[in-house]
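Each field is set out as follows.
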Amino acid sequence: MKMRDDYTCPLELVHDMIKGKWKPIILWRLRLGAREQPLFLS
């Protein structure tokens, strides 16, 4: 993954890190903030 050296905002860095087909899914899951893990993951 090629990344720039001159980011002006931390969100630009995050955008470059998660760009692609997974970005909408990741952002949708993060929209509510931290949540408890389901019991089956414990």
In short: The CA atoms of residues 29 and 39 lie 18 Å apart. The two ends are 32 Å apart (CA to CA).
